[in-house]
Specification:
Elements: E1 5-11, E2 44-48, E3 63-65, E4 85-89, E5 93-97, E6 103-107, E7 113-117, E8 148-155, E9 161-164, H1 171-178, E10 196-203, E11 206-212, H2 227-231, E12 239-245, H3 254-268, E13 277-282, H4 291-302, E14 310-312, H5 321-333, E15 359-364, E16 367-371, H6 373-380, H7 387-399, H8 402-408, E17 416-419, E18 422-425
Parallel strand pairs: 1-3, 2-4, 9-11, 9-12, 12-13, 13-14, 16-17
Antiparallel strand pairs: 1-8, 2-7, 5-6, 5-8, 10-11, 15-16, 17-18
Length: 428
Amino acid sequence: MFADSAKIYVKSGNGGNGHVSFRRELFVAAGGPDGGDGGDGGDVIFEVDKNINTLNEFRYVRKYYAKDGDEGGRRRCHGKDGEDIIIKVPEGTVVKEAESGKVIVDMSGDNQREVILKGGKGGKGNMNYATPTMQVPTYAQPGKPGIELTLILELKLIADVGLVGYPNVGKSTILSRCTNAKPKIANYHFTTLHPNLGVVDLGGGAGFVIADIPGLIEGASEGVGLGHQFLRHIERTRIIVHVVDISGSEGRDPIEDIKNINKELGNYNPELLKTPQIIAANKMDLFYGDEADEKLKEFHEAFDGENIPIYPISAVSGKGIKELLYAVNDILKTLDRTPVIFHKEFDASDLVIDESPLEITKVKEGEYLVKGSKIDKMLGYTNLDDEKGFAFFQKFLRDQGVIDRLEELGIEEGDLVNLGDLSFDYYK
């Protein structure tokens, strides 16, 4: 099964908490603070693996977590940093933020390794809070939480030339004729269910990468059939080769087929219509006498003025294939061969850490409630029995706007304030 899109959840590691401890050594009556810093959480990293060509793995594993940083230790020991998680993807994978659909990174060209999410910073140990006036700090800083994100992965093939057309018009046969690719070929519709890549070698260092895009149908741009999955692979190509059954052996009008496919390309992405196009009029071997010349004349008249060259070929016999390939190569020489890269639209580093906001409410007359993850963490790592620790906690409440909000709600001296399992009387 060829998978070229996936939806996954990723989370960077939490930072380790800072440590509270004091030196305890022989003949040292009152050692100073020596609590170490917590380790940083692990990052979420994407890396290109040249040996992978599908997103199949992500059909089975959809959640990826980096490791958390360790807590700091005694004797100024720094906690161990959390291990990064490295997610390997095929080249050409575009990573998008799921909710907005914006591009985070295109794993192509120079983007072979990218840090998508940074881990949370480790908290500072109490050794960092010693001052001439606060020589025995009994509190430490909790680690910052990691960041979580839902991502869409889309594989967009990196090819110079894309073969497009309705099912069963001969795209796979052409690919097998001009490259070493070995696509499965049979005489029934929708033989090709995933794109195939091949390298055309014209000798003397000339050549290009060509992709056989599975058969498109009307409504593909709206997602009919497997339209969207196939259309995304055309976005990087520099030349579009329309392969048509000029004989109409399937009962289709080849001229209308080309016009319909261009309509689908334009609906999906109007920029695709600016891509140079060539028509490969296939199955010329099925005509007799002057029928071939008459049909080609119809084609030239239908596309007169559109600057779309037409090359009669027979994929089965190979007739006209060489001329088609050299014509494609000549056009490629005039085009910029710099890889098509989808630029960043979403910077994950700007994400706010997902911490629930503080909820400050008046329960009843003379009683108030403050709750939230920030409060819980601070209570867990602050010694409120110590005067300095309590002063540190009060400063935190002011910095978070808790005191201002309580005063807005009408709190008065002597009123009760509940914070988690802690309750205290309010005094200015």
